[in-house]
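Figure 6 in text form: structure in, sequence out.
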């Protein structure tokens, strides 16, 4: 809390109050409006919460104007280049980078919880063979609440961290089981000798009929994608996790709520939409036509993967993922991949066009991530599941932080009611049509 204040005056009465400004480490301060209703009898109106801070957090900072993303103060570029997903997960959960011993202990803790109860295999059988994988992921993650309901003690920090280990460990196993159910192949158990993303690739693609060799370039690319998606401040799914968790519900249920929110095409389905867009464009020769369509406000076509609600400059994750995209495609021997060439041409044309430059509609992380997933053999409708795997440590860190915050209360957003005024009930035989 600082000595800075904002004075608010109700011009209908002349009554004024001073509201304190809270300032963080980076970014704009926030006006503490908790006494607004008490003093004035008004609520604030902020559709989409675009100007409202719903919590205080030490985890992630975004400066959208300058294209900056920090996890616990560390630039995303440095973490993606030098770290790995489990180390970043530790950072998000604990607030500091681990020592060698701490990281080894964390890796073991996560690895030891990768197995899921055998009865969950029957749970998958209840889904239709072509069920969307996010439906399976959401349902099975929520079902973990039944296995660990009595074991969770929200007031115990050690117990909360055990829950974090369990969720982080079991998400790849559940995701891979959903993939195998889609493919009609037998489930593959996790192997404790493999690193997190190596284990995920093995559970996704190995079969009992032949050995599967894990490509280290693919494992590293996947690890980097998970890092880039690990947290993104108070986005829709993270806010959903926090709002659900504010009731004191089982954390597995809260994470399932995050999965459900992420499923939306405006959130976690954005990279899938990019591939669908490239498929619609079809060929490089069609790029000028579709560029013009994107600029036509009366045309329903939109360039997917360009611009971001938060970033008003380059998405810092896009620069990293572009390089990784080329590395994967070069390793697979498909340097002349038609869809990548189309994506590169689309990017080049858009960045040279004044319409997009003036509006700072630059490629975001979704523009390239879908191409990488496709190159790794991951089906399009599974992209959001991969996003959920990456976002899991962020959800868990935000959940843990919220539960420990003494200021946090149950979420209860207000509304501006615009429905019918109070009216009397009319018996059904006396009502007139219209």
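Output sequence:
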């Amino acid at each position: 809390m600082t000595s800075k204040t904002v004075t608010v005056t109700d011009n209908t009465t002349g009554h004024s109050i001073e509201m304190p400004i809270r300032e963080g480490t980076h970014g704009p301060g926030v006006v503490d409006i908790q006494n607004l209703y008490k003093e004035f009898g008004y609520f604030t109106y902020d559709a989409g919460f675009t100007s409202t801070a719903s919590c205080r957090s030490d985890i992630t900072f975004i400066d959208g104007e300058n294209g900056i993303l920090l996890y616990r103060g560390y630039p995303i570029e440095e973490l993606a280049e030098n770290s790995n997903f489990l180390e970043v997960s530790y950072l998000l959960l604990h607030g500091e980078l681990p020592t060698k011993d701490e990281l080894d202990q964390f890796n073991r803790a996560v690895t030891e919880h990768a197995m899921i109860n055998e009865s969950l295999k029957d749970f998958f059988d209840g889904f239709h063979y072509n069920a969307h994988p996010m439906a399976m992921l959401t349902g099975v993650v929520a079902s973990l609440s039944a296995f660990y309901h009595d074991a969770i003690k929200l007031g115990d920090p050690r117990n909360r961290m055990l829950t974090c280990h369990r969720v982080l460990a079991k998400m790849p196993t559940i995701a891979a089981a959903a993939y195998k159910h889609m493919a009609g192949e037998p489930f593959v158990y996790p192997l404790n000798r493999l690193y997190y993303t190596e284990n995920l690739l093995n559970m996704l693609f190995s079969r009992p009929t032949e050995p599967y060799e894990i490509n280290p370039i693919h494992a590293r690319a996947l690890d980097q994608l998970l890092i880039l998606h690990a947290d993104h401040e108070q986005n829709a799914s993270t806010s959903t996790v926090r709002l659900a968790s504010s009731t004191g519900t089982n954390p597995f249920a809260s994470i399932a709520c995050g999965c459900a929110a992420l499923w939306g095409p405006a959130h976690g389905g954005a990279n899938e939409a990019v591939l669908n867009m490239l498929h619609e464009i079809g060929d490089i020769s069609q790029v000028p036509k579709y560029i013009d369509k994107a600029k036509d406000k009366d045309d329903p076509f939109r360039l997917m993967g360009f611009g971001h609600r938060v970033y008003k400059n380059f998405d810092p994750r896009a620069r990293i993922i572009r390089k990784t995209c080329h590395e994967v495609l070069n390793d697979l021997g498909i340097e002349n991949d038609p869809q990548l060439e189309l994506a590169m041409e689309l990017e080049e044309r858009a960045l040279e066009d004044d319409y997009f430059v003036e509006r700072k509609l630059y490629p975001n992380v979704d523009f390239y991530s879908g191409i990488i997933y496709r190159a790794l053999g991951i089906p399009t409708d599974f992209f959001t599941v991969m996003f959920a795997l990456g976002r899991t440590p962020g959800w868990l860190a935000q959940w843990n932080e919220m539960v420990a915050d003494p200021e946090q209360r149950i979420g209860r957003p207000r509304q501006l009611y615009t429905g019918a005024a109070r009216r009397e009930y009319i018996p059904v035989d006396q009502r007139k049509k219209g």
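Caption detail: The domain at 5-53 is CATH 2.20.28.60 (Rubrerythrin, domain 2).
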